[in-house]
């Protein structure tokens, strides 16, 4: 599995990081570091996170597939 970060992902992430940095820059840096670790580990553990019983499984799976394809 290869993970590609789309321009949309990068733009949204930048907005999130700027928002977090307004309060504390180091928290923004830590968030980015931890997020990158999780994303970079996805190819090694693609089924690591369980599905939630609280969401409509079919629609959530479709949304995640769309997000994964756009990353």
Report on this structure.
The chain has one domain. Helices cover 68% and strands 0% of the residues. The longest helix is centred in the first third of the chain and has 17 residues.
Mean pLDDT across the residues is 78
- Beta strand count: 0
Helical element count? Answer: 3
Structural class: mainly alpha
Rg calc: 14 Å
Amount of beta strand: under 5%
Overall domain count: 1
Cα distance spanning the termini: 12 Å
- Shape, principal axes of CA atoms: globular
State the helical fraction.
Answer: 55-70%
Instruction: Catalogue the unreliable spans.
Output: none
Major sheet size, sense and barrel closure:
none
What is the H/E string? HHH
Put the structure in a nutshell.
With 71 residues, the chain is mostly helical. The chain has 3 helices and no strands. The protein has one domain (7-70).
Features:
mainly alpha; 71 residues
Topology:
Blueprint: H1 7-23, H2 25-41, H3 57-70
Helix pairs in contact: 1-2
């Amino acid at each position: 599995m290869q993970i590609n970060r789309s321009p949309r992902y990068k733009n949204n992430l930048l907005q999130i990081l700027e928002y977090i940095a307004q309060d504390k820059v180091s928290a923004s840096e830590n968030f980015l570091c931890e997020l990158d670790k999780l994303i970079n580990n996805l190819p090694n553990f693609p089924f690591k996170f369980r599905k939630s019983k609280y969401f409509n499984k079919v629609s959530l799976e479709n949304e995640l597939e769309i997000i994964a394809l756009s990353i």
